[in-house]
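Box 4.2: Ligand-aware structure prediction
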Amino acid sequence: MHIWTEMTIKEGLSWAKEQLQEACERPAFEAELLLAYHLGKDRTYLLTHDMDIFADVNAFQKLIQRRAVHEPYEYIVGSASFYDIHLDVEEGVLIPRPETEILIDLVAEIIEKENITRMAEIGIGSGAISVILARKFPHLHIIATDICDTPLKVAGKNIETFGLSKQIELRKSNLIDAVPEVLELVVSNPPYIAEDFLLESNVIDYEPKEALFGGRMGDELLKQIILDVKDRGIKYLACEMGYDQKEPLQDFVNKIGVKYIKFYKDLAEFDRGFILKF
Ligand SMILES: C[S@@+](CC[C@H](N)C(=O)[O-])C[C@H]1O[C@@H](n2cnc3c(N)ncnc32)[C@H](O)[C@@H]1O
């Protein structure tokens, strides 16, 4: 790779686009995002200052090299856009996915309809689900668990950023083992990928295995969550799931007995989750 000591913004963008050709679907766009991040400016600044020489070319080249080997953009900049906010993220925490916004909207409908004030989230990750729900419902109290330390640390930071420490309580726990309180609803986007499923390099090489794999078939943890919620006498459970898990989960709940289970699809029309009532 040619080491530049000086570059104009225009040259920087053209060089970066070339480097990102293989790793990114939209190399020019990501080159702009990363240069804007490097400069602490927005993208329009790049257009209006394209002949300016910019500072610390070397640090910019390092950012581009990270992205060129498939490191997710969100880990490089330490932030992910989700719903109507930006959340801090870092390696060790799942980058929140847009499809999880559908789960949040369905849960919000139940909270509103049933006037729910106490609920739990299993596997908080960055805090995506709990932070959005707590912002929507100022009287809602959420106990959120995770089995790993990094998500608990990062979620804690995001909870503080949005001033939600009084509403969201964090606990290190397997599922809801450490949550003995009476609850009306549990939400979870648990790990649900089968252990032999082939994932893209940006996911498998960077995102935490604990957030991805749900067992040999993938739905083992989901089934355990369903059983735990039933045993605890909790009325509602809302979960995200894999596109191929509707049938096994329908069979499973038919056996254990539920009032109803309603499956929902994501924007690509794949089965993506369910709302269950006991
Ligand atoms: C798919 S990520 C979801 C993160 C976040 N809720 C979101 O939607 O972006 C699953 C999370 O569950 C956590 N987790 C995995 N197994 C768990 C368990 N047995 N008990 C509690 N949390 C668990 C992982 O560490 C990870 O943070």
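In the box above, the bound molecule is S-adenosylmethionine. The two ends are 60 Å apart (CA to CA).
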